[in-house]
Amino acid sequence: MKTENILKAHAVLSTIAILTLIAVIATGHSKTQTFDTITVRHIDILDSEERIRVQLAGEFSPRRSDLSGILFHNEDGNEAGGLVYAGKKDEDGKIQAGAMLTFDQYAEDQIMTLEYAHRGDQKRNGLLIMDRPDEMGENMLAFYRQYAEAETEEDRQRLKEEVLPTIPREELPARRLFVGRTTRNSSTINLYDPLGRVRLRLEVDGTGQPKIEFLDEEGEMVKKVSLEDAAEE
């Protein structure tokens, strides 16, 4: 009888403890809490309708596992841009680093990018403006699916080299403007036509010399204006 009473008392106390814990969790969930330090790998921030609007992560999906940062999503669940970065030295001691702040077209990829890229002794940074079709074509959708499923960087590079050239040009993104510092240590403004071909380039090169170049549809320079030309006039 004594043992039975002890077991009953234990059951009652356990039930009270569990109910108390549930109550604490339930009430605590709805309250603001303050922490000195939180250690996590991934955080999803939801809106009032429980949709993911912001993702913070130490790394993202397999094809972007080297990137950390923030991704933004719109109300329809599409990725809408982000701030991501990476940086390390490879086994030969060469720098492999980069960072991007991107703004995506609706249900498409980025159309405006603020970028820093550093590969060994080659550095490039600047603002890039892109044109994209209003709707992504089937060929590009298929390419992105294959790209997302590719397991290695070699596979992804092969897709770029073999599949992208087969996609009609009107389905592809096209550069329209680049403003920044090139790998040649030049301060450059490139203006592109609707097919992504450079047609006008304003540049101050690595030696400090300014020039303006006009290019044809094949990328051949048809006119150049430099300090020497101005002096001759």
Question: What's the arrangement of secondary structure elements?
Answer:
Elements: H1 2-29, E1 42-46, E2 52-57, E3 68-73, E4 79-89, E5 95-104, E6 110-119, E7 122-131, H2 138-149, H3 153-162, E8 174-181, E9 187-192, E10 198-204, E11 210-215, E12 221-226, H4 227-232
Antiparallel strand pairs: 1-2, 2-3, 3-4, 4-5, 5-6, 6-7, 7-8, 8-9, 9-10, 10-11, 11-12
Please state the oligomeric state of the protein chains shown: single chain
* Gyration radius from CA atoms, angstroms: 27 Å
Strand content: 35-45%
Mean pLDDT: 87
Helix count equals 4
Distance between the termini: 115 Å
Can you give a write-up of this model?
- There is one protein chain.
- With 233 residues, the chain is α+β, with helices and mostly antiparallel strands.
- Among the domains are: 1-34; 135-170, no CATH class.
- 24% of the residues lie in helices and 39% in strands.
- It is built from 4 helices and 12 strands; from the N terminus they run H-E-E-E-E-E-E-E-H-H-E-E-E-E-E-H.
- The protein has helices at 2-29, 138-149, 153-162, 227-232; strands at residues 42-46, 52-57, 68-73, 79-89, 95-104, 110-119, 122-131, 174-181, 187-192, 198-204, 210-215, 221-226.
- It has a 12-stranded antiparallel sheet.
- A hairpin with a 5-residue loop joins strand 9 (187-192) and strand 10.
- It is globular and about 90 Å long.
- The termini are far apart.
